[in-house]
Amino acid sequence: MEWKPNWWARLFRGARPWTLSIGDGRVRIQGIAASIDVDVSEVASLAVRERPRALLVSLTHDREAVLAGVSRRSAYEIQAAHGSEVAERHRLHSLFAAAAEQGESARLWWNDVQELMSRPRWADRDAVAALHRTRPTTDGWIAASTELQLSVSMRNRSADERAAVEACRTLDLAQWSERRNEEFLAWEKQELADFFRTVEKSPLTEEQIRATVCFDNRVRVIAAAGSGKTSTMVARAGYAITRGVAQPVEILALAFNKKAAGELSERMEARLKDDRAGVASSTFHAFGLRIIGEATGRKPSLPDDLVNDNGMGRLAGVVDVLRDRDPVFRRNWDLFRLVFGRQLPDLGDEADPEKADPRTKALGFGTLAGEVVNSQEEVMIANWLFLNGVNYEYERPYAHDVADAHHRQYQPDFYYPDIDVWHEHWAIGPDGTPPPQFTGYAESMQWRRQTHAAYGTVLIETTSATIRDGSGFEHLEQELRRHGIELDENPYREAAGEPPINDKAMLTLMRAFMSHAKGNRLIPEVLGQRAGRSLRNRLFVQLYEPVLTEWDRQLHAARQIDFEDMLNLATDHVEAGRWTSPYRLVMVDEMQDTSTARAALVRALTKTPGTYLYAVGDDWQAINRFAGSDLSVMTRFDDWFGASSTIWLDWTFRSPQSLCDVAGSFVTKNPGQIVKHVRSSADDLGVTVDALSVSDGRDYARVLREHLVHLDGQIHEPASVLVLGRYRSSADDVANALRSKYSQLRVEFNTVHGSKGKEADYVVILGLERGAFPDMREDDPVLQLAMAAPDPYPNAEERRLFYVALTRARRSVLLLTRRGRESPFLIELVRDGAVKIRSPKGDDVTPCICPKCRKRAMVERSGRYGAFMACTGYPLCDGTMQIGDASASPRVRAQHRTAPSPRG
């Protein structure tokens, strides 16, 4: 902008002509004695003088110019223009300074990035995340570079700074680090080729090398059965030492049990030799005990009885103390044992023949008094009546003949002859409705109530919902007293029928509950909330609380701890900073078997920046939930420990591909498991899965002996055989075959649980019978209050146990079953076309699968019209077919018959 003296001043006052302009950060004055051309910052002030009016321009170096003839308006404009230019100059200066600062920050950050990526080590996730967090902003630098007056200056800044700013703006760190790590992996394969070839007996595979070199902060290795997971743990320790990631004394390997820890230690010592010195291998419990001792200066002791019998003797003493001094505890203990000892199935689930009374084999359940009743809720009622000395009759025919064309003679559930009162127990839930499969049940209830009303007989009613929440017993007691019966409670009354669960069984249940509850840090208040409305659950928690208090009191008085304390207290010491971990690398074996308490300790050990967690496991082999393992530690690894890298060991060196396919197809029916595709490097030698059926369980020993003799004659070099049973008692059934001598075979028996980690050339799985494998004896539901959430898939853990059994074999597996009692697992393999069943003579005796339920075999039965094929699950499943259809396409012929009325 430009200003001059006004024409009035020039004409009448003789003002000399001058010109003032302001722009581009400069103030220029011409027409005066000495022209002025200065930066706006050199103008100290612009003042207006009156009479005569003039603009006084003062410069910072004591020079002054007087511009006469300026109008008031022009003076204000000049002042405003100068102020605007000064403000703009300050803005540009600030922008340039900020840009310079951001450029320097970008340069330093880019140096950090390049330093991380140039290290001879894996770019770990935490370090990359830290770079993400510290990435500086470059908005000011970019803004300055687009300013016309600063663009030249910004272009003149160093090329390094401009490159750093560009990296800050555009670099995808995750993608770049991933690409860089792949290049580093390829480099390490070449640089350490000798190490990877010799660290184990066999050279490491490509995936094993990746599992070794990938030194992310948290690494989860999903290892298929027989994929060499232990080799990767040994190699990782050796690699960490070789590359200076960790010294031997900074490496810790934790194992599930003492045997596994010992084997891991021996393997490291054998392979790493001198480099192994200082590497620690330990069980979780032993390591926890060490932490407590070092943190407190006093290593606590473990009670001898806890080691010898898991504390059962100590617990019995605790219960005896409580029974003696607390009548309420004694009464509740006996009430639970006598009345609530049996677990309740789901409402409406009692008809399953596999859940029949284990003693009588009848489709019902035995009571203390000796009769067999239709449901376990009725068992609870009958046992409660027996406990309280109430005279009753079960299903006595009604006093009046009410049978007609549509109803058989009525038999109420209970009758009390001393007071002439009838009692019906209805199978209805909290919403007042029966299970949906109980067709016609509501109408039957109405008819029975109307019958009592018509004949004027007294009826007491209870329901499934009220018996399960406990209110039904209170109601029953009130009703019996109201009608004249006095209860005579006696827990020691001699029982003629099904014995109640004994104190030993109660103690076993209580000890298991305590172990889970303490391990998961569930206090009684929380357990009480979990118990909900269930009287059985609430009663058990009421028993548990004083037991826990007395148990802990005795341990504290003796300065002792239990197994659960070992882990929980150790975790507390680490988290509180009373014990500082010296370990940079923590490796965990069999991660799928890790409990909540173990996981919490691992998390505490690895929370310090710069530590590395390496967890190896296979969720398909998670078979220790009964011992407290929480599968979510493996399947939801990131939730427990933070963002991680997952590496897959899919190649197995043990089982042939055909066996891998059979086992894998079976176990992956459960969609809640981690998907993997197992590939085998072993040779296929023919049929790898075979099944043999005997007519009587006593034939197992003979058939096994014949199989081993035949196998012994077929091979020409030593081989191993692993005979597996679902239970330890299975060994007794085949003792002669196991004790026999064979020229080439080395035969060993194990339970399937005990076979974990073992392998053999040949595997024989005994007793694949319905009700035995899978084991239909479920954990007591009360344990669920204190345990990790169960896998919702049916028989999930038993399926994984069967997978473990199958994958122990290097060559083949023989499955032994009993005709007509085939395991559902074997039926599933047959249904999927994975196996055929033959007799000891070699005949094909593969059963026809029920076309209705597709879960059981069909057997021949005789009927009114001759022989036919029927499902072994009758009456739960009424699938049938004609005998001729068994070898052709099966079909179902509906059986029209009058079904018995469902009972409560």
Automatic annotation (TrEMBL):
InterPro entries: DNA_helicase_UvrD-like_C (IPR014017), DNA_helicase_UvrD/REP (IPR000212), P-loop_NTPase (IPR027417), Topo_IA_Znf (IPR013498), UvrD-like_ATP-bd (IPR014016). GO terms for molecular function: 3'-5' DNA helicase activity; ATP binding; DNA binding; DNA topoisomerase activity; hydrolase activity. GO terms for cellular component: chromosome; cytosol. It catalyses: ATP + H2O = ADP + phosphate + H(+); Couples ATP hydrolysis with the unwinding of duplex DNA by translocating in the 3'-5' direction. Keywords: ATP-binding, Helicase, Hydrolase, Isomerase, Nucleotide-binding. One of its GO terms (biological process) is DNA topological change. It comes from the Bacteria. It comes from Microbacterium natoriense. Its EC number is 5.6.2.4. It is an enzyme of class 5 (isomerase). Residues 202-656 form the UvrD-like helicase ATP-binding domain. ATP binds at residues 223-230. This is DNA 3'-5' helicase.
